[in-house]
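Progress against Task 2.4 (sequence-to-structure conversion) is shown through the following example record, which the project officer requested during the mid-term review.
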Amino acid sequence: MNSAFVTSRASSLDVGQALSISLRGVEELLPQDEWVKKLQRSEATGQPLRIKLGLDPTAPDIHLGHTVVLNKMRQLQDLGHTVIFLIGDFTSTIGDPSGRNSTRPPLTREQIEANAQTYYQQASLVLDPARTEIRYNSEWSDALGARGLIQLAAKYTVARMMERDDFDKRFKGGQSISVHEFLYPLMQGYDSVALKADLELGGTDQKFNLLMGRHLQQEYGQEPQCILTMPLLEGLDGVEKMSKSKNNYIGISEEPNSMFAKVLSISDELMWKWFTLLSFRSLEDIASLKAEVAGGRNPKDAKVLLAREITTRFHSAQAADAAEQDFANRSRGGVPEQIPEVQLGGAPLGIAHLLKQAGLAPSTSEGNRLIDGGGVRVDSVVISDKGLKLEAGSYVVQVGKRKFARVILGK
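Structure tokens generated for the chain above:
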């Protein structure tokens, strides 16, 4: 058989596999034909593609919603391509207007530096640090200067900028748009020019900014990047996107017992989307598991597998084992092995005051509300009497399913 044909056939199979991995769980890959050509060229030359993900350090912690794009980066990294983890220390001083109905307050340099310190450390729990290029966009943005910024701004029109949905809505609604907000997509797009990116990743809310990178690369005579958008991950409530402000998130630095239990709390329906976007299992394995559940297997079994995988990734297999045992113990009404110990005085002490002082309720009124709802236990006994006063002694106090404290109450 012609050896050139064999090589070509093997190459096309490798490209096909790479395309399949690229498309897993994605919202859009644009333009797909250009991405295939880039993959083919990389396969033929052995030159890895440059894949960029930019994150502004607007908060110190990363949650599972952020890892959707990080997982995709890792998949492409495992294909041998160069992954660029870009920390937007310059763009953070502007504030991303994406999805905003008002001007986002810019962060101070001190806030940015504090948040950036933890970003890469946490992202390294998903990415391979040895094969990740870390960059800060202040490298080229600060050097651009006023003259360079004016020249950059000349490469895009106000009319096209106003095509952006959030700008259009705010303008029509009579809400203010500051001129500096126009600079954000320009500077994010210029990042792609500086890094000579072949592909940029982001959430669906970043599409305008990603397309800006393509436009500016063409303006600067570069081959334009392709863009890949990932769906926004719904949080624990199954409705809103995962967000700290919505309190429906799982932080990747969260302690393992809490992480495991929170994964098990999601709905059976949402579980399959989480499998697709968060699990490293093959799509074939996930489809097989889904078929087993459809055939009568308890969906909790599948959810435990997901909880174990996520907890193991960010902690360890041993931590996942312990978290599973802890969850099973709590489900049987047991007390976790390790609970915080609190020493209080003032016995006899009213139960609502005890809950507040032990940090189990934010106020005595909230403590009384929890008692009314049957959510308070002392030594495994449900408390219904809001007038209860506890004498000096040691008590295991539980609020809801996850809050415990061993209270040592003195006079």
